[in-house]
Amino acid sequence: MDEEGFDADEATFKKKLKELKELSKELRLRMKETEERPKAIASMLQSLNLTSGFLVSMKKLPDAKEIYAEKDFTDIEKVYTETKTWFTTNWKKHNESDPTKKPVFLSKDILYEQNKLDREMVYLINKAKYYVPKPKPKPKANTTSEAGKNKTKTTSDEKLKLKQLMRKRQKKRRERKKTKR
To answer: What are the pLDDT digits (tens) for 36-74?
Structure first.
């Protein structure tokens, strides 16, 4: 190029630039992934942690049988285990692989799997958020029991926890969108 540089036309420069970009394509991909993958991994770990916590609290809800169908429980558990298995398997492969080779899994793959998990979580959170309990028949006597009052408080506490989980999830999404910009 040094010899051709002074007399070269625009087509020659474009041809040489294209060759250089092609040669450095894999290197640029590895550099980009080295920067983005840790963020995606941290985000995935956080989603897995939130989902496991949500699964526990979801099952402890007093109205869980009314709010969620059995299919909801199996679906979220299935998505959670599939995502966790995929992630741990690929993360191990990645840690064992040579850093000078093409990455085993890309940050966009991590985000795709995480989005599947997030989608299921948001669905179930919204289902609980917009749940309207069925009206209970009024007792004939005007006596109130302490057990009934405690049950109502527990239901309110659990719904509050679900709302807090949902707010954390939304905050995390907003932060993720800001970092993408």
So the answer is: 889 999 999 999 999 999 999 888 888 888 888 899 999
**pTM for the whole structure:** 0.62
Question: Do the beta carbons of residue 21 and residue 90 sit within 8 Å?
Answer: no
What is the DSSP-derived secondary structure letter of residue 97? S
How far apart CA 87 and CA 128 sit, in angstroms, is 28
Chain centre to alpha carbon of residue 27: 28
CA distance linking residue 46 with residue 83, whole number of Å: 13
Report yes or no: 72 and 124 within 8 Å, Cβ to Cβ: yes
Q: Which residues of the chain have pLDDT under 70?
A: 1-6, 140-154, 181
**Domain range summary for the chain, segments of one domain joined by +:** 26-129+150-180
